[in-house]
């Protein structure tokens, strides 16, 4: 201590008095005490230690911590106090003590279950101090799932969407690898893609990749575009064409067989024609049955 402190201490002692001032941590230190009378003086050095209860401040124990999954679980908090306090931290939700925060080798690896609020308590013989610490755990994307709405089996011409979801902290960003087609529309956050008027170009594998600063993970789903109705239409069209040909043939046969039943014919023009042959056959048939057709001849 400085000379004033030493003089004050010696004066108080010589007078047999005592100081009424409250002791503070600043009083700790080395003092020089000197006793004097007419016969001489004596000097003695004194070391003063001030004990006090613990306290925990922000610099020694930040209120928010960020851990990464897989790293050693360490929650170190520094507290002041004399005697030096013992600090223990426990998660409030389950009151389970963490391993010693300063022993990295014996600390378990961080998992997502470590996230939460912890209470750190500093204790010595003069009291204790509490401080809450919130721990967030970051981790790479996990559990990537894709869902096709309304179904992964899509009818041609209908609409569908593919949604991608993934766990991760920080929140992942999303990227896609999918069949190239002009009728794709991505959501603002890129978590989904919508397809209107599905066609053959939209069938195939849809792959979503979730990424953050700790890693990436992908998931895929197969989309099928059902064109069976088109095959039915094509089949019906082919059947209709065959039917039309058959009807045309039948109609031609009908006209061919009925054209020779009645009408006016030029004998010279009709000679050797199919109509004449038809009439000849029918006349012979009718003649066998006793019927005779008459052909009216006109002068050309």
UniProtKB/TrEMBL annotation:
Pfam assignment, any one: Ig_3
UniProt cross-references to InterPro entries, sorted A to Z: ICAM_VCAM (IPR047012), Ig-like_dom (IPR007110), Ig-like_dom_sf (IPR036179), Ig-like_fold (IPR013783), Ig_sub (IPR003599), Ig_sub2 (IPR003598)
Region (Disordered): 1-23
UniProt entry tagged with the keyword Kinase: no
Segment forming the signal sequence: none
Domain of life: Eukaryota
Name of the gene encoding the protein in the UniProt record: Icam5
GO process terms (BP): cell adhesion
Family matches, as PANTHER family: INTERCELLULAR ADHESION MOLECULE (PTHR13771), INTERCELLULAR ADHESION MOLECULE 5 (PTHR13771:SF9)
Gene source species: Galbula dea
Gene Ontology MF annotations: integrin binding
GO cellular component: plasma membrane
Transmembrane segments: 229-255
Ig-like domain: residues covered: 54-136, 141-224
Alphabetical keyword list: Membrane, Transmembrane, Transmembrane helix
Name recorded for this polypeptide: ICAM5 protein
CDD domains: Ig
